[in-house]
């Protein structure tokens, strides 16, 4: 088989037009997702149902023929598998039982694979059902971002609870991060063993830390996961997405060992070319609102990303997840425009 287009870029090639997939491509903007979701019961029931998780993973591939599929799951299955209570409430997002750092010793790493078994089963089914040319991505949340939800028990606007916990009790916080590093390595290694071609580490809240905290809670754990994963699967390809990291992206790329870096829509293309794209592939960075608005706003945004980053190693994506109010027809227009692009 010829090399999958997205894998070629992760392996070092520049390809034009670039491969394209979209964060949250399986989700509420698609009517077929909403239909499957309503059959599943709770959101976690959908994540732990291999048949339905496989179905929703494939829906955007059938509709748009993206170059990559991403496993349908959530970053919060790891706290769930570690024995914390996790619930998703309609219209509210995730709710967890807030974790006190004194209780980190009670997190149980020995039984995570039991709870995550249905996710591995979904991985195997998805690889079996995907077209051969489609790259299959596994993923996990980065330890820092997962910890922010575990400590606060919910999403917050600035992750104040986790930032304060890390500053007040760095040793206790380091123990939590270490558990999450170990869990993430084990989880990603199984995803690769069962059929994922590459993995993405989502660090949605990387942008709220100062440089020394970023070094300790974003760079060091990510580097440990990349190294730990490659000790098990030497050729493992990893995409890191430290959203909002801005100029610290340069250190993230230089120090973590990732093969590609996700960039949000605020990143200037000149900076990305000069500081990042000569070292790794870059993934991004269309503003998701351009897909909601469509028309000229969408076309111009697509053209700018292709002009700004298309000469180097690029995986076309949004700068963060697609939002539920996006029109599926705009997504089709986006894919068509990228695929028709000429240098
Ligand atoms: O990208 C994909 O299509 C794969 C599936 C995926 C989901 N969540 C499904 C989901 C992935 C990769 C994630 C990652 C995730 N989950 C992140 C990191 C990436 C990011 O978007 O920042 C984070 C922070 C979470 C935690 C989480 N899950 C939140 C904060 C929420 C509520 C916010 C929201 O968008 O509703 C979720 C729920 C969630 N995860 C939904 C989906 C499709 C929507 C819930 C539903 O369908 O009922």
Describe the structure.
- This protein has 343 residues and is of the alpha/beta class.
- The chain has a single domain, classed as TIM Barrel.
- Helices cover 50% and strands 13% of the residues.
- It has a 7-stranded parallel beta sheet with strand order 1-4-5-6-7-8-9.
- Bound molecules: coproporphyrinogen III.
- Coproporphyrinogen III (CP3) binds at residues 23-28, 37, 43, 70, 72, 74-76, 88, 93-94, 139, 141, 145, 155, 202, 204, 321.
Name a few traits of the molecule.
343 residues; alpha/beta; TIM Barrel; seven-stranded parallel β-sheet; 15 helices; globular; binds coproporphyrinogen III
Shape: globular
The helix content is 40-55%
Number of strands: 9
Structural class: alpha/beta
* Run of helices and strands: HHHHEHEEHEHHHEHEHEHEHHEH
At the first level of CATH, the class is Alpha Beta
Query: Total helix count?
Result: 15
Strand content: 5-15%
Radius of gyration computed on alpha carbons: 19 Å
Q: The biggest beta sheet, please? A: 7 strands, parallel
Helix-strand layout with pairing:
Blueprint lengths: L4 H6 L20 H10 L2 H5 L2 H15 L3 E3 L6 H5 L4 E4 L3 E4 L15 H18 L5 E7 L1 H10 L7 H9 L1 H24 L4 E6 L7 H22 L5 E5 L6 H8 L3 E3 L6 H7 L5 E6 L1 H6 L1 H15 L4 E5 L9 H12 L4
Parallel strand pairs: 1-4, 4-5, 5-6, 6-7, 7-8, 8-9
Antiparallel strand pairs: 2-3
Helix pairs in contact: 2-4, 4-6, 6-9, 7-8, 7-9, 8-9, 9-10, 10-11, 14-15
Coproporphyrinogen III (CP3) binds next to strand 3 and strand 4.
